[in-house]
Amino acid sequence: MSDLPSPKFDAPQLLRHHGQTVAAYFATLRKRYAGAPARLMESIEYSLMAGGKRLRPALVLESWRGCGGRSGGDGSLSRSALAAAAAIELIHTFSLVHDDLPAMDDDDLRRGRPTNHKVFGEAMAILAGDAMVTMAFEILASDADPAVVPALVRELAAASGPEGMIGGQVLDMEGENVQLALEQLRHLHRMKTGALLTASCRLGAIAAGAAGEVLQAMTDFGGHLGLAFQIVDDLLDVTSTPEQLGKATKKDAGKGKNTYPSLQGIEVSRREAADQLAAATKAIETLGPAAEPLRTLARFVVQREV
Amino acid sequence: MSDLPSPKFDAPQLLRHHGQTVAAYFATLRKRYAGAPARLMESIEYSLMAGGKRLRPALVLESWRGCGGRSGGDGSLSRSALAAAAAIELIHTFSLVHDDLPAMDDDDLRRGRPTNHKVFGEAMAILAGDAMVTMAFEILASDADPAVVPALVRELAAASGPEGMIGGQVLDMEGENVQLALEQLRHLHRMKTGALLTASCRLGAIAAGAAGEVLQAMTDFGGHLGLAFQIVDDLLDVTSTPEQLGKATKKDAGKGKNTYPSLQGIEVSRREAADQLAAATKAIETLGPAAEPLRTLARFVVQREV
Predict the structure, then answer these.
(1) In the beta sheet, which residues pair with residue A113?
(2) Pick from B36, B122, B130: which is nearest to A103 by CB?
(3) What percent helix, strand, coil does chain B show, rounded to 5?
(4) Rg of chain A's alpha carbons, rounded to an integer?
(5) Considering CB atoms only, which of B37, B138, B158 is closest to A154?
């Protein structure tokens, strides 16, 4: 399954194909970490295999293709692109497990199932999250081409850390029950969700050997896509049911969180999401037909129902 | 301060010197992460600057010297060794912050001060710990010689992860109120504390370009030292007061934890610590006088009062 899907696939087909690729990779972790306590690996697998959209790995692999990454003679993906796809999904999953903890968002439901700490207990959920971070970096350092390991590790670590996702979570927490200006909300989301989505695109590009203008184009694409993603996420929290979303809804308002709809209304938010989609598409127009699946994924992000 | 101390220093002098080197490095983090939320960086600094022994950075830097690492013309350490020293202390500190959480060991006191979550709240302590992990890998990937980055990242990640420190914490948790055999206790500690101490020695060796027999000697040294360290830690928990140790004592027994003294008595434990020290020293006898500070540190680990 470690090959590229047809560029003509629609977004659900692309996501399914890349999702299977990354799931097959995750299925090898139990053997790879044979010396680890069984219950820890169960807790990690429980969350890794919970069936998310796998949007970030798909972005890594399609950014790799869009930047000229070529499969081997047997059609297989480069080890660097595959390692980056698995690593970013590990980081994303870790962040969900820790976000759901009682001390954080205190959520009982995630992707339609009990959250990790509800099943494995709080201590194990903390440790499973911690372990996923170390595994992400171990996989990158072991499996990617050594020539790109420093850049890949730097990219993933920076996007996850104090100036990226984790910093954004702190701002999110500090912003509860405080009225933020729109520019502050954008800043928060550029860190909290934007950094990892942008990194998905940049990791794929770096694995393909991209630099200069091409890497900048992927950075811009990821930035606009990240903002669009968060606006749509906020909209879905207002307009969906828990059954559709697989997690609690309407919780942003209940927690006094700032959202795009709460700051500028539903209609303006929808328009801004569409504008960000247009800007994302424009950023990669020079990449030609190899980047068509990236455009398909970007449209999906903005137009998805759940 | 980024130079090597006199090899004739005693252990407190060596630790003070290397401690100042790593503290000076940590003092640059606020500027390096200027885009991070201030409160997050405060929480991270609170724990990083709490004045631990800095044993792991000292082991990195002395292993580097023992394996032939040479200072630059200005006496400065290699960037790789310094980055590895800072990275391993970040990982060690993260593990303390998460270990102290209410869902884990629920400790109020660490190094004589309130624990991180007592000061900054549980959510911030979780996020600060998470951030320290990403920072460790970012520093390694950015500051070390690119030629050794893959090996350094792999080493640190493996020692921290499911088959290393985090796996050991899970075993420790699972072993509470269960009678372990001595071999199971040794296995637990090889993971929980031994992995990171061994990695300290190996990181320094790798930064110095060591391989083959020399790297193996450092691995053996670190393994024996790690076991000795844990036995002494268990002994100190029984024989010290909280004032001496800067944290709660006698808590192992209260929690139904297995320890060397509880399984084999105080005298046999003391003898085993001495045997491990002898084995550690023997492992690096071929390294000659450049490894003398490593022997000094090993003796300190076993003979320390607190």
Answers:
(1) A110
(2) B122
(3) 70, 0, 25
(4) 18
(5) B138
Instruction: Output phi, psi for A275, to 5 deg.
Output: -65, -40
Enumerate long-range contacts of B287-292, CB under 8 Å, 24 or more apart.
B287/B66, B287/B67, B287/B214, B287/B217, B289/B7, B290/B7, B290/B65, B290/B66, B290/B68, B291/B62, B291/B65, B291/B66, B292/B7
* Closest chain B residue by Cα to residue A162: B36
Q: How confident is the model at residue B54 (pLDDT cuts 50, 70, 90)?
A: very high
Cα separation, B155 vs A163, whole angstroms: 25
Q: What are residue A164's phi and psi, to 5 degrees?
A: -125, -130
> Please, where are the H alpha helices in A1-67?
11-26, 29-32, 38-48, 55-66
The answer to whether residue B225 scores a pLDDT higher than 60 is: yes
Residue A304 confidence class, pLDDT cut points 50, 70, 90: confident
Given this model, what pLDDT does residue B254 score? 67
Give the mean model confidence (pLDDT) for residues B217-236.
95
CATH number at residue A129: 1.10.600.10
pLDDT of residue A207: 97
Tell whether A302 is covered by a domain: no
Query: How do the residues of chain A divide into helix, strand and coil, expressed in percent and rounded to 5?
Result: 70, 0, 30
Its domain, for residue B138, covers 11-300
Tell me the mean pLDDT in the region A162-170.
Answer: 98
**Residue A203 in domain:** yes
Q: How many domains does chain A have?
A: 1
Q: Are A44 and A108 in contact (CB under 8 A)?
A: no
Q: Judge whether A111 lies within some domain.
A: yes
Q: What mean pLDDT is predicted for residues A223-233?
A: 95
Contacts of B174 in chain A (CB under 8 A): 37, 39
Flag whether pLDDT at B31 surpasses 70: yes
Which of B29, B40, B116, B190 best probes binding to A when mutated, by most A CB atoms within 10 angstroms? Answer: B40
pLDDT tops 60 at residue A1: no
Give pLDDT tens digits for A256-272.
Answer: 788 999 999 999 999 99
Q: What sign for the dihedral angle of Cα B93, B94, B99, B101?
A: positive
Confidence of residue A30 (pLDDT cuts 50, 70, 90): very high
> Band of the pLDDT at B247, cuts 50, 70, 90?
low
Classify A274 as helix, strand or coil.
helix
Is the model's pLDDT at B186 over the cut of 70? Answer: yes
CA of A110: how far to CAs of A114, A267, B139, in Å? 6, 28, 33
Residue in B39, B142, B162 nearest the CB of A135: B162
A206 found inside a domain:
yes
HSE toward the beta carbon, residue A114, CA cutoff 13 A: 9
Contacts of B166 (CB under 8 A, 6+ apart): A40, A127, A130, A131, A134, B95, B160
Residue type, B109: L
